[in-house]
């Protein structure tokens, strides 16, 4: 397996400290804080570890309370809120340095059949016809502050192929709608819970950034502070993150220094696998002179 993906999978092998208490390790993703998708995925994995009857997560609702420190482990405490005949609910609190940095609730369901319907996937070129997300040139990177340069240069365990051309260093005001193909850089085990946890992980890519598109702005320009406030995911159908998924995004509103965005994950066969929504801070600041 690719070393980047093997390392990511290792992050999701949480250490069990007590019956409902787990510890996860973080990695430097080029950001000054823990990547939000990592906390989402690890919290969901901790909740899964308290189930034993094959129930699958169908929804997750989370709040980011404080920035996490990627140099220190995160402890996840799981409350077994309810185990019913068809559904189980878990509440997870992530703690670092004695403070809550993240809370979420997740609901799990036994596999059932019922009424079926879904929207049609957007008509976009297949991933093979699109170039990978292009990093800025070395000359452009050399002009950036070190922390922004590291964020762009770091190698990630997922590949991205945007449908619409995008340069975060030279954003142009446009309609807040975009689609990105994404998948893991190598094959993963046939473990549905792992794929759902990693889907939570990648759901934090590109989402809030969509709400900055009408303003022609980007946090890489130094005049915008961005941070996730809350995040929700609904898992509709099984999907693999080591196969191409189309993340279709739009942002219906930005106001009060907050941006709101939503997304849909489609398989390349057009199956709607999951839906997401997020609100986050998008605060304008005066660039340092």
Protein model, in words:
The protein is α+β, with helices and mostly antiparallel strands and 289 residues long. The protein is built from 5 helices and 12 strands. A 12-stranded antiparallel beta sheet has the order 1-2-4-5-6-3-9-12-11-10-8-7, covered by helices on one side. A hairpin with a 2-residue loop joins strand 5 and strand 6. Helix 2 packs antiparallel against helix 5. The chain is globular and about 55 Å long.
Give short descriptive properties of this protein.
about 35% strand, about 290 residues, 12 strands, twelve-stranded antiparallel beta sheet, alpha+beta, about 15% helix
Q: Residue ranges: pLDDT <50 for 5 or more in a row?
A: none
Summarize the amount of helix as a percent range: 10-25%
Briefly note the structural class of the backbone. Answer: alpha+beta
Query: What is the H/E order?
Result: HEEHEEEEHHEEHEEEE
Identify the overall geometry: globular
Strand order of the largest sheet: 1-2-4-5-6-3-9-12-11-10-8-7
> Mean of the pLDDT scores?
92
Rounded to the nearest angstrom, the radius of gyration is 19 Å
Number of helices: 5
Q: Count every beta strand, where a strand is a DSSP E run of 2 or more residues.
A: 12
Distance between the termini: 46 Å
Q: Characterize the biggest β-sheet.
A: 12 strands, antiparallel
| Strand residues, percent | 35-45%
């Amino acid at each position: 397996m690719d070393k980047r993906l093997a390392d990511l999978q290792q992050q999701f092998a949480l250490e069990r400290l007590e019956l409902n208490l787990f510890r996860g390790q973080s990695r430097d993703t080029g950001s000054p804080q823990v990547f939000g998708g990592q906390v989402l995925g690890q919290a969901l994995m901790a909740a899964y570890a308290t189930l034993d009857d094959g129930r699958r997560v169908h929804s997750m609702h989370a709040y980011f309370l404080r920035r996490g420190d990627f140099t220190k482990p995160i402890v996840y405490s799981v409350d077994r809120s309810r185990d019913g005949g068809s559904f189980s609910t878990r509440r997870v609190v992530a703690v670092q340095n004695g403070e809550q940095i993240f809370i979420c609730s997740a609901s799990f369901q036994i596999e059932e059949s019922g009424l079926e319907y879904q929207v049609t996937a957007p008509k976009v070129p297949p991933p093979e016809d699109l170039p990978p997300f292009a990093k800025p040139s070395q000359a452009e990177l050399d002009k950036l502050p070190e922390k922004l340069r590291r964020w762009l240069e770091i190698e990630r365990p997922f590949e991205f192929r945007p449908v619409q051309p995008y340069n975060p260093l030279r954003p142009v005001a446009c309609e807040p709608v975009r689609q990105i193909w994404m998948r893991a850089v190598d094959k993963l085990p046939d473990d549905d819970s792992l794929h759902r946890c990693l889907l939570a992980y990648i759901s934090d890519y590109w989402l809030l950034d969509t709400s900055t598109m009408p303003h022609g702005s980007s946090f890489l320009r130094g005049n915008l502070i961005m941070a996730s406030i809350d995040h929700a995911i609904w898992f509709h159908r099984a999907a693999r993150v080591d196969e191409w998924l189309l993340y279709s995004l739009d942002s219906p509103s930005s106001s009060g220094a907050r941006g709101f965005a939503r997304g849909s994950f489609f398989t390349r066969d057009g199956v709607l696998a999951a839906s997401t929504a997020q609100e986050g801070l998008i605060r304008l600041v005066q660039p340092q002179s």
